[in-house]
Structures are given as structure tokens and as C-alpha cells.
UniProtKB/TrEMBL annotation:
Pfam families in alphabetical order: ABC_tran
Name of this protein: Iron complex transport system ATP-binding protein
Single GO molecular function: ATP binding
SUPFAM superfamilies: P-loop containing nucleoside triphosphate hydrolases
SMART domains to which the protein is assigned, alphabetical: AAA
Source organism, top-level taxon: Bacteria
Organism from which the protein derives: Bogoriella caseilytica
Cross-referenced InterPro entries: AAA+_ATPase, ABC_transporter-like_ATP-bd, ABC_transporter-like_CS, Metal_Ion_Import_ABC, P-loop_NTPase
ABC transporter domain segment(s): 5-245
Keyword annotations: ATP-binding, Nucleotide-binding, Transport
Length: 262
């Protein structure tokens, strides 16, 4: 099994603030990770580094064998699929959902070629279908609901067949139905051996799709713990990360957490 992501003593400081404090983390082939932690813990910063969209102040980040600082970041764009609220805002609202997915094969955000290969079109349609939004292929992105947009975004991130899929809070702002549909699609993706290594950021253990295997727990830019999900999502570790006493339950592969009742 190969290493897909490696953080070695990663330190990030911006504007006088320490954002990540000597983080060591590695992700291997076949793994599906969730990054959990309270607001400001550094989750999005970890994802931005893993996507090659920022550099550490010190330490090294290696993404799919390429060390940041020694590689052309443009080369990483097709190796890493990313979804985030910031990227979603940059997608052209007047573009059809199908084109939003299709243009990702060339690392673009707007349609710029008149002709795409029929194979590309079929792949884009299959991805929209896999995420339950094939019927929206011809609708403009700006007319989609938040849940529909999230699913189109994940389909877009998968279009170039990346080695690594990064999902920054994919369920944020979704209603219960939207969240559950997205989770079912992500769970199916997690269970498919052909899927890329995945890393998903969330605030809520309830949003971890069954099939995810590992967890990275952050607090104030430091790693609280990292490893197999069952070992990470203990009341002790979660209470430590979130700063209050929590109870954790697992039922049919899903987790729930709530404040402990005294
Ligand atoms: N350019 C910057 N200058 C100063 N501080 C920054 C900068 N960028 C991020 N931060 C701070 O770094 C911390 C970590 O931010 P980050 O977005 O990685 O956290 P997060 O865990 O994703 O938070 P959230 O759950 O609220 O989305 C925050 O306190 C944020 O205010």
C-alpha cells in the first residue's frame, strides 16, 4: 500500500497566529478519513495544504508523491479533487450542471471548449447519476438547491479521476433529506475499491458516512489523536477535542455524540 498524503512536522503561521502546530499525519491507499474538530481547529487549513493550495510555514507536505514547494501546483489539480464552499462560489451560476462536471476534466470552471469527447460526456452523466442528480444535468447551476449543488460539486471533483478526494464540509447547510442522500452516495463511494482515497471535513460525527475508516481529531491546530475511526471516536478523545464532556454511540455504522448527562 502506498502513501497518498504525508504531513511531516507541519507548522502554519499566518498574521502572528499559529494555525497548525507541528502536525504529523499520513494517509495510505484505500483509506477514507474524516477530519473532526471545533471551529478554528485548523481543519480547512489541512485540506488547503492537502490540495496544494497553500504552503506550510515549515515542515513538509507530500501529496500523491509530490512534495509541495518542489512541484508545479498546477500538476496537482487533476490528481486532487476538492469540494469546498469557497470553490462552490466560484462556479458559474449560468452553466448547466452537466458542464460544471464536464469542465473539471480540464481543470476549468467555465465551459471553454465547444466539443467534448463522448466518453467525457458519458462519464459526467454517470457521475451525476451516481449522486442522484442526473435529472438536473441540463439545469443551470445557479437554480439548484444547496443539496443539489453539493452533489454536483462532488461529481465534479471526481470527474478527472483523482487519486485523492478532499471534501470540506460537504453536508454543511443541507436539510435532513439532503444530508442523508449525500451520505448514502459518499458511503457507496467509500465502499468502492476503485474510489480515490477520501478525506472529509465535518463538525458532526453524525455526518460520517458508513465505510469511512480513519479519523483525524484536531484542536487549536494540534492533533488530539489520529487513527482508526473506532479508536478515535471515543468519549474521551471527542470530549478532549471539543472541550466538553460527551457521550458517543455507534449504531449500524453511524455515530452520534451529545453532551453527557450527569
Ligand atoms: N490568514 C490568516 N491569518 C490569521 N489567522 C488565520 C488566517 N487563516 C486562518 N486563520 C485562523 O486559523 C484558524 C484555523 O482556521 P481553519 O479555517 O483552518 O479552521 P477550521 O477548523 O476549518 O474552522 P471552522 O470549523 O470554523 O471552519 C482560525 O482561528 C482562523 O481564524
Amino acid at each position: 500500500m502506498g502513501e497518498v498524503l504525508e504531513f511531516d512536522d507541519v507548522f502554519v503561521r499566518r498574521g502572528g497566529t499559529t494555525i497548525l502546530d507541528h502536525v504529523d499525519w499520513s494517509v495510505d491507499d484505500g483509506e477514507r478519513w474524516v477530519i473532526l474538530g471545533p471551529n478554528g481547529a485548523g481543519k480547512t487549513t489541512v485540506v488547503q495544504l492537502a490540495a496544494g493550495r497553500m504552503h506550510p510555514t515549515s515542515g513538509t507536505v507530500t501529496v500523491v508523491g509530490e512534495q509541495l514547494g518542489r512541484t508545479d501546483l498546477a500538476d496537482l489539480r487533476t490528481l486532487v479533487g476538492l469540494t469546498s464552499a469557497a470553490l462552490a462560489d466560484r462556479l458559474p451560476p449560468g452553466e448547466r450542471a452537466l458542464d460544471i462536471v464536464l469542465t473539471a476534466s480540464y481543470g476549468q470552471t467555465g465551459r471553454w471548449r465547444e466539443e467534448y469527447d463522448s466518453e467525457d460526456i458519458e462519464r459526467a452523466e454517470a457521475l451525476l447519476h451516481a449522486f442522484g442528480v442526473a435529472h438536473l444535468a441540463q439545469r443551470t447551476y445557479g437554480t439548484l438547491s444547496s443539496g443539489e449543488r453539493q452533489r454536483v460539486q462532488v461529481a465534479r471533483a471526481l470527474m478527472p479521476d483523482p487519486e485523492l478526494l478532499l471534501l470540506d464540509e460537504p453536508a454543511a447547510g443541507l436539510d435532513l433529506g439532503g444530508r442523508e442522500e449525500l451520505m448514502a452516495a459518499l458511503s457507496e463511494l467509500a465502499g468502492d475499491a476503485r474510489s480515490p482515497v477520501s478525506v472529509m471535513v465535518t463538525h458532526h460525527v453524525e455526518e460520517i458516512p458508513p465505510g469511512f475508516t480513519h479519523g483525524l481529531l484536531l484542536r487549536d491546530g494540534e492533533v488530539v489523536t489520529a487513527g482508526e475511526l473506532g479508536d478515535v471516536l471515543t468519549p474521551q478523545h471527542l470530549s478532549n477535542a471539543f472541550g466538553l464532556e460527551l457521550e458517543v454511540e455507534r449504531h449500524r455504522g453511524r455515530y452520534t455524540a451529545r453532551a453527557a448527562v450527569r
